Amino acid sequence: MQMNMEFERKLTIPMDVKKMYPLDKSLRETVADRDEQLKAIFRNEDDRLILVIGPCSADNEDSVIDYITRLRRVQDAVADRVFIIPRIYTNKPRTTGSGYKGMLHQPDPNQKPDMFKGIVAIRSMHLRALRETGFSCADEMLYPENHRYLDDILAYVAIGARSVENQQHRLVSSGVDVPVGMKNPTGGDLSVMMNSITAAQHGHTFLYRGWEVHSKGNPYTHAILRGYMNKHGESLPNYHYEDIMHLLRLYSEGVFSYPSCIIDTNHSNSNKQYLEQPRIVKEVLAFRRYNDDIRQLVKGFMIESYIEDGCQQLGDGVYGKSITDPCLGWEKTERLIMEIAELS
Q: Is pTM, for the whole model, over 0.90?
């Protein structure tokens, strides 16, 4: 029986795309230096706070680079207290399968999907950010087989709430050489996330891109708390003091390298009320000041932020405004980062 698909073309393999858009020696050194700084934070050898921050989706290269250039200036001002990893999220999960799926699918959101142009576009944008601002950035591993197109350039990888229970995401994460954050699933069962972290921290043999591969395990795999949905479809937070203490207990019941957590301040933690993100950050910072165990566990925050507040419909054409989830605007973002540096 044949598959119900049309095979249009075979796409260029990652090795060839990397040759087309390579990292030079200077850029490789920048990536390696940032990798080591970030890992030192997870090893508790560096007490700076991590901020994985940026647009919900990277829909326009110029506005994304504009935003990250602004982040560069702020990073220089708070370099002793905060380690910034810009979000360049080029793949977007869609709950029902409809809607904008990210730059990988549509390098121009107003045009039809073109996967090859998308592959080129996402690598080009990550390269431009690195070259112009010195930032290696974060992306979501929505499709594990596509990670190789960016694996030499990313500082941080996120596994989303809908992917965290998937075996391939867990196995590929075990072979990734940078920190990987595992979100709790939308249903809120933290045991699913903890099982995923356990799997990713150990080595495996599995099939990847047509190869039998052997991973060594990723000790920097960690938790991301993002809130959850109850059986009635209502958003509930899991960033409160008791939630973080519960996560600490779960870590203590197993054997984990570098137990760590990032707090996602949007999604179900804010009920997608993006203006609540600064309040959530400040609450968690207060927990860290009160309890040394929480201070050691909570390494930072994931914040959705762009140039303009809120979000817009595809086609509205407002520069630097999200076309997916609403984001915190630049003025509020800059103020928040400065406050984080003072309070951390």
A: yes
Give the count of beta carbons closer than 10 Å to the beta carbon of residue 190.
Answer: 17
Helix 277-290 vs helix 241-252: angle between axes, to the nearest 10 degrees? Answer: 60
**Cα gap 61→328, rounded to integer Å:** 19
Residues in the chain: 344
Are 140 and 161 a contacting pair, CB within 8 Å?
no
Domains of the chain: 14-343 (3.20.20.70)
pLDDT digits 0-9 by tens, 137-162: 999 999 999 999 999 999 999 999 99
What angle, 0 to 180 degrees and rounded to 10, lies between the N-to-C axes of helices 61-77 and 115-133? 30
Please provide residue 100's backbone torsions phi and psi, each rounded to the nearest 5 degrees. Answer: -65, 125
Structure-block tokens of residue 78: 């708070």
- Sheet containing strand 82-86, strands side by side: 82-86, 49-54, 298-304, 261-264, 222-225, 180-183, 156-159, 138-140
| Of 128, 220, 231, 218, residue with least CA distance to 174 | 218
